[in-house]
């Protein structure tokens, strides 16, 4: 289904299922628009998923720029900000909520209902000490990375559009405002459930869980224990997500429970980063002084967050009169599949990155030793895997070999790898093509994002638009060689923090 080209999305296209839960779950209020907005970029790919015509953003009758900049509304929209709580850096932070996000409702699409949300659209009751705005710098990063992750095949919220204004916003310095239109089947987080559990509101906790199961996890209704089934589903999806992050070298930077999606999506792009040199201890968030969210710790942090979710759902899992200790054990058992989901997906992804089409007992050691080899001298993670995609069973490893200072260690591993490929009669051409289809040439490195940001801050949005096109085809060799090159020396001075 697509919308008629002559009219914008009308009331019959919109759903407001979250709004139907009632005022305990949100505050209904209009967004605060930006004066004289301009388009920075829009995603044709995301618009196609919505079933919208290609020229949706240009149509005067749609008035899309004003709507997605918070200055107008389409019929059927109900703008609201939801309340949630959560643990931030491992500490209970109390009530949080959509401090700068406005949910516009759900729109019916060919693939089901998708929620649209404006990020940076002004104050809400949950803004706490914030201003409810997002700045152009961080909005470009979120817009580009949302679409880049989707193109990489990693579960993520999407970004439909990005608009900007000269409206001043104070961060470390004076910046300008922007609004990202985000898209997802649901923006529900672990923190939504923690909120009602912490405030001892079992009726609302049950209502929210029942809503989520009915709308987003109906298979759980087939279980005799649907809330345990829900917890297990979230655990498995989260395990798969973290495997994708670790395999591609993605650092989220701020894995608080309020930034964890109930659907296993990458959500809330703030101080994220893709690894340049492979350093398992890399901390991408300059605000993370203790290194809680370092790259190698991400899988264990996700499991910790699942414990917090299990604790929040415990009142639902515990049958009336049942021993609380037994209910707690059942909840812990329900998140245990996270470990298997993570390990199985990670090894499968890494086998694909190494071009192994069969599973052998020695693969785990081969993969682990490859990662140790990269970590020993912090070899560029993306470039190493891309060059590995050129490895020939009977050829000199050439460009790949040149990445390693310890040639003896590299040759020892390469011989094991060569023998492993020969054991499954791997054919160079077919394997190399398959590897290029899973080892990206381009990821959103910080210096690439910074180039787009600096141009945009002086009114030139062409680099953001160009980079979007490149990131949506990450496995193709880019026409601009610098997109896939080693980062320049100045890139090492870039820092991102929670304000990014």
UniProtKB/TrEMBL annotation:
<dbReference type="GO" id="GO:0005524">
    <property type="term" value="F:ATP binding"/>
</dbReference>
<feature type="binding site">
    <location>
        <position position="268"/>
    </location>
    <ligand>
        <name>ATP</name>
    </ligand>
</feature>
<dbReference type="Pfam" id="PF02696">
    <property type="entry name" value="SelO"/>
</dbReference>
<comment type="function">
    <text>Nucleotidyltransferase involved in the post-translational modification of proteins. It can catalyze the addition of adenosine monophosphate (AMP) or uridine monophosphate (UMP) to a protein, resulting in modifications known as AMPylation and UMPylation.</text>
</comment>
<feature type="binding site">
    <location>
        <position position="268"/>
    </location>
    <ligand>
        <name>Mg(2+)</name>
    </ligand>
</feature>
<protein>
    <recommendedName>
        <fullName>Protein nucleotidyltransferase YdiU</fullName>
        <ecNumber>2.7.7.-</ecNumber>
        <ecNumber>2.7.7.108</ecNumber>
    </recommendedName>
</protein>
<keyword id="KW-0808">Transferase</keyword>
<keyword id="KW-0548">Nucleotidyltransferase</keyword>
<feature type="active site" description="Proton acceptor">
    <location>
        <position position="258"/>
    </location>
</feature>
<comment type="similarity">
    <text>Belongs to the SELO family.</text>
</comment>
<feature type="binding site">
    <location>
        <position position="100"/>
    </location>
    <ligand>
        <name>ATP</name>
    </ligand>
</feature>
<dbReference type="GO" id="GO:0030145">
    <property type="term" value="F:manganese ion binding"/>
</dbReference>
<feature type="binding site">
    <location>
        <position position="132"/>
    </location>
    <ligand>
        <name>ATP</name>
    </ligand>
</feature>
<feature type="binding site">
    <location>
        <position position="259"/>
    </location>
    <ligand>
        <name>Mg(2+)</name>
    </ligand>
</feature>
<keyword id="KW-0460">Magnesium</keyword>
<dbReference type="GO" id="GO:0000287">
    <property type="term" value="F:magnesium ion binding"/>
</dbReference>
<dbReference type="InterPro" id="IPR003846">
    <property type="entry name" value="SelO"/>
</dbReference>
<keyword id="KW-0067">ATP-binding</keyword>
<keyword id="KW-0464">Manganese</keyword>
<keyword id="KW-0479">Metal-binding</keyword>
<feature type="binding site">
    <location>
        <position position="182"/>
    </location>
    <ligand>
        <name>ATP</name>
    </ligand>
</feature>
<feature type="binding site">
    <location>
        <position position="97"/>
    </location>
    <ligand>
        <name>ATP</name>
    </ligand>
</feature>
<feature type="binding site">
    <location>
        <position position="99"/>
    </location>
    <ligand>
        <name>ATP</name>
    </ligand>
</feature>
<dbReference type="GO" id="GO:0070733">
    <property type="term" value="F:AMPylase activity"/>
</dbReference>
<feature type="binding site">
    <location>
        <position position="131"/>
    </location>
    <ligand>
        <name>ATP</name>
    </ligand>
</feature>
<feature type="binding site">
    <location>
        <position position="189"/>
    </location>
    <ligand>
        <name>ATP</name>
    </ligand>
</feature>
<feature type="binding site">
    <location>
        <position position="119"/>
    </location>
    <ligand>
        <name>ATP</name>
    </ligand>
</feature>
<keyword id="KW-0547">Nucleotide-binding</keyword>
């Amino acid at each position: 289904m697509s919308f008629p080209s002559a009219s914008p999305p009308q009331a019959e296209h919109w759903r407001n299922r979250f709004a139907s839960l009632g005022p305990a779950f949100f505050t209904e209020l209009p967004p605060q628009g930006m004066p004289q907005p301009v388009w920075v970029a829009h995603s044709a790919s995301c618009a196609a998923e919505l079933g919208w015509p290609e020229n949706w953003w240009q149509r005067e009758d749609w008035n899309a720029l004003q709507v997605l900049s918070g200055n107008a509304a389409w019929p059927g929209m109900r703008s609201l900000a939801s309340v949630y709580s959560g643990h931030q850096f491992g500490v209970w932070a109390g009530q949080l909520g959509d401090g700068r996000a406005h949910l516009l409702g759900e729109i019916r699409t060919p693939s089901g209902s998708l929620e649209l949300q404006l990020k940076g659209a002004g104050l809400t009751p949950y803004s706490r000490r914030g201003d409810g705005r997002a700045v152009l710098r961080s909005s470009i990063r979120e817009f580009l990375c949302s679409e880049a992750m989707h193109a990489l095949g990693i579960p993520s919220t999407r970004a439909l559009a990005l608009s900007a204004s000269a409206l001043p916003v104070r961060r470390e310095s004076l910046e300008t405002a922007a609004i990202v239109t985000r898209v997802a089947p649901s923006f529900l987080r672990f923190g939504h459930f923690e909120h009602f559990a912490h405030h001892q509101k079992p009726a609302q906790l049950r209502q929210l869980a029942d809503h989520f199961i009915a709308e987003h996890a109906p298979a759980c209704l087939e279980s005799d224990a649907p809330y345990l089934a829900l917890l297990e589903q979230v655990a498995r999806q989260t395990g798969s997500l973290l495997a994708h992050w670790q395999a591609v070298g993605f650092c989220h930077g701020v894995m608080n429970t309020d930034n964890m999606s109930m659907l296993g999506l990458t959500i809330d792009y703030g101080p994220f980063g893709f690894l340049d040199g492979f350093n398992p201890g890399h901390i991408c968030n300059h605000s993370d002084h203790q290194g809680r969210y370092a790259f190698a710790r991400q899988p264990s942090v996700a499991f910790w967050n699942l414990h917090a979710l299990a604790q929040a759902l415990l009142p639902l899992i515990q049958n009336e009169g049942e021993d609380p200790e037994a209910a707690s054990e059942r909840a812990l058992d329900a998140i245990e599949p996270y470990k298997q989901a993570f390990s199985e997906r990670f090894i499968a992804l890494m086998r694909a990155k190494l071009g192994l089409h069969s599973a052998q007992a020695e693969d785990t050691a081969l993969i682990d030793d490859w990662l140790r080899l990269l970590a020993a001298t912090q070899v560029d993670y993306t470039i190493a895997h891309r060059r590995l995609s050129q490895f020939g069973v009977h050829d000199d490893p050439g460009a790949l070999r040149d990445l390693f200072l310890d040639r003896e260690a590299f040759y020892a591993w390469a011989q094991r790898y060569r023998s492993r490929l020969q054991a499954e009669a791997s054919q160079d051409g077919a394997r190399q093509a398959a590897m290029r289809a899973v080892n990206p040439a381009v990821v959103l490195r910080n210096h690439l994002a910074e180039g787009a940001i600096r141009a945009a801050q002086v009114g030139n949005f062409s680099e953001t638009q160009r980079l979007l096109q490149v990131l949506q085809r990450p496995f193709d060799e880019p026409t601009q060689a610098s997109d896939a090159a080693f980062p320049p020396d100045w890139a090492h001075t870039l820092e991102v923090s929670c304000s990014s």
